[in-house]
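Filed under: proteins

Residues; backbone shape codes:
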Amino acid sequence: MENLYIKRNIMCIDLKSFFASCECIERGLDPFKVPLVVANDKQGNGAITLAITPYLKKQGIASRTRLYDIPNNIKYTIVPPRMKLYIKKSKEVVNIYLDYVSQEDLHIYSIDECFLDVTDYLKLYKKTDYELAEEILKTIYEKTGLTATCGIGPNMLLAKVAMDVEAKKYKNGIAKWTYEDIPTKLWPITPLSKMWGIGSRMEKNLNILNIYKVEDLAKYNPHKLKDKFGVMGLELWNHANGIDTSKISDFKVQAKDKSYSHSQVLFKDYNETNIKIIINEMVELLTARLRSNNKQTTVIGFGISYSKEINSGFYHSIKLDAPTDSNKEITNYCNILFDRYYEYLPIRKVSISCGGLIPKKGVQLNLFEKIDDIKNETKINEAIDEIKNKFGKNSLIKASNLLEDSTAIERNNKIGGHHE
């Protein structure tokens, strides 16, 4: 397993309270001394704060909360979001990174967060990774007025978690973790949702297994995690043990392979209680297309976009152990990705893709599947596909399609419904 413990010099840099800091800088204010909130006040007291200044965070206010949740005794200024300003400031910071590393060694994770692989630059600059981080953060502040925090680690995971968990504790905003720090710094993390890649819903699923801190996850039977969560269970176990073999080069845009994908903009806000209906319906469309083209998928992508006022979301993919065109299996993986990353915010768009397509040549079983179950699902799906192809997509519907939150019947009446 030694080869899994790659040793690079990775930095994860985050711009502190980015939106709120940009607004303060534009106004000549110090974000550490003024109570400023970025939110759409036209939505009233129930508007979600997109960002708050560090000054308000020190008073115990959460970064994302409803305006009515801010105590009445705390006075603050509300300013509307300006995405053009934030994109402009973000580009300024990215250009600073590119003064230190090449494009190939930079991964833009979000508008305010980036990964840098500085392994091959330390001799050039004659600095340690820690010294180089100090210089980069100082340059960001001097050129843009923005304050940043930085995590340093031998892989992307440990750099990210060091930044999330420890960097904010230090005056210079820098924390460095090594593999030797795993038992003393990574394993004690609790609740689990403080760990990168574990959302609140996944945390609840793990708590059911009596896993409450990262050490519990690291010492849990990885085979049982795989049985429960598929290949993602193994990834969770690897991360709990500080293992992450991903490289920045993995995230560079490559020639797009053939895939079937579907995205749906929702007509109202959805949440964890009703979004599963939409996921099931979208998967049914994609799997029908897979079967009609005699294809199976080896990579499933799943993404959520939150309401426009929040302007964020997530998109992650997972590589399967065996190719599939199964409704049940693909839905299960989409639900696992949802549970892992969902942040309990209003949902306005769902995206699902089936990539890494290969011709269907047979069925590959694992030790936990019965051939009769696979045959039955295949026969049922083929019968449903035949009826819908002959009499129309709404000729055969599920009871769930009649629920108020379903969009299947309306969508089936429209032309299309998928895109490549």
Q: What stands out?
A: Confidence is low (pLDDT under 50) at residues 415-420.
